[in-house]
# Entry
Amino acid sequence: MAKQAAESFAAMIEGGDLSARAIETVREACKRYGRADVAVEARFRRHVYDDPVASVKLAKLRRGQLRAWRERLEQKPVFVGPSFNAERSARDRSPATVNRDMAMLRAALNRVLAPGAPGTEAAWQEALKPIRNAHRRRTVYLDRDQRRQLLDCIEPEAVPFVRTLCVLPLRPGAVAGLEVADFDCRTSELSVGRDKSGKSRRLQLPHAVAQLFLAQTAARPPRAPLFARLNGKPWNKDSWKRPIARAATQAGMPTGTTAYALRHSTITDLVNSGLPLLTVAQISDTSAEMIERHYGHLSGKITVQALDSLSL
# Structure
């Protein structure tokens, strides 16, 4: 038995799998998975590390324990507003939010646990299946005139950041993560690396947008935030919410006008312009399936126009 254990240990070292033996609990599996991604680690801190499931040994993990964790997650409220505001409002956690939170734990466990046979206690993954049809279409759309009105009412500090959201279909977090070195003023190309997919992509910017970016790079070091606040720090979800909310109220914008509503508006305009959905997906750093699901109904209008042009 000792000889077999030694041979198994040696084989594990040769296969580079020694580190997996040290992972015994759910917490350790999450820490190993989240160590390379600050956002993932933050999600684990919010929903896993302080939960009873964190101390469960992987060898004894069962569907019921994960199902109980999922129920506790679904019952957690989502607080709306800056974290420093003691009077933040709370709302129910949406199915899409639950799916995102579960996906991180499911991915961490997939690294160290083999999927079990369906319907057995070894089928731990059954408790973490995503909710179907959880994503709803965004309905708040701001046309170009409304976006101009919003910019007219926005605080001067936030104008460059919000203007970028109005003219490019980028996620707010991706814009906030841009650095001066990401914009090549010679070729008017923008490198976007810190986005949801983790894959870097380059965008050729039109002249007006390139001038906006050029103004942000003047006499600033390469590693400085491309869009910085007055204190020199980059924007984040807590700092961009208030100026956008205030400007939306002042300009009489629809309820639900947020930074993501601006992204939705720019993507809508690209689809309505007749740009192929695959190209829109590539620019927006999302899948063609996601664009088809949320914006495919818009391309139908273009199809009708194209077919109408064939009339004799």
Q: What stands out?
A: The chain has a mean pLDDT of 84. Residues 279 and 288 are 8 Å apart (CA to CA). The first helix runs from residue 2 to 14.
